[in-house]
Design brief:
By secondary structure, this protein is of the alpha+beta class. Helices cover 39% and strands 25% of the residues. The chain has a six-stranded mixed beta sheet. Strands 3-2-1-10 form a four-stranded mixed beta sheet. The N terminus is likely disordered.
Length: 165
């Protein structure tokens, strides 16, 4: 009887781990599109994109990575999918719920609007809304990094492979 109970518990535990994605791959999918801050080291920042992490060192490096890993969006899609909330800081709210799953956590570029770039915030911990934050200068990219960075343990960050441009 005791042996059967242990076997059943082992099977249930292994099934639940596979169903809920415990392991290194879970860390990657959980953080896709996020900016991670290593709280156990020197607060180093990483951007997770397509299963790889990219180190965001200096403001110009963060700006360069965000520009190179961006997604172009037509002006029509931008105008119908976003609504400006703050014209000084150029912050937009996502109004097209069908567009959002494809661009959350991404950097979008408006080629028809002088190549303006925006970071589309992922839904962090069930946040109240999504926004597109303007990345005009390297300083802006650095501000976005500090504003939306998630404190994360080194082991979780280390489990994500390094990306190269």
């Amino acid at each position: 009887m005791k042996h059967k109970l242990i076997t059943i518990i082992t099977i249930i535990a292994s099934l639940s781990m596979s169903l809920y994605g415990v392991g290194a791959n879970a860390a990657v999918s959980d953080y896709e599109g996020s900016i991670l801050l290593d709280v156990e080291r020197n607060g180093e920042a990483y951007y997770v994109y397509q299963g790889e992490k990219y180190f965001l060192g200096r403001p110009w490096q963060a700006f360069e990575i965000m520009r190179k890993l961006s997604l172009g969006i037509s002006e029509d899609n931008f105008q119908t999918g976003f609504q400006q909330v703050n014209d000084i800081w150029q912050i937009y709210r996502i109004v097209n719920i069908y567009l959002f799953p494809y661009i959350q956590g991404r950097i979008v570029i408006r080629p028809e609007a002088n190549g303006e770039a925006y970071y589309v915030t992922p839904n962090l911990a069930g946040g109240s809304g999504y926004s597109a934050e303007y990345l005009g200068r390297p300083y802006d990219a650095f501000q976005i990094m500090t504003k939306f960075g998630q404190g994360t343990q080194s082991a979780q960050i280390d489990s994500i492979p390094n990306g190269t441009l």
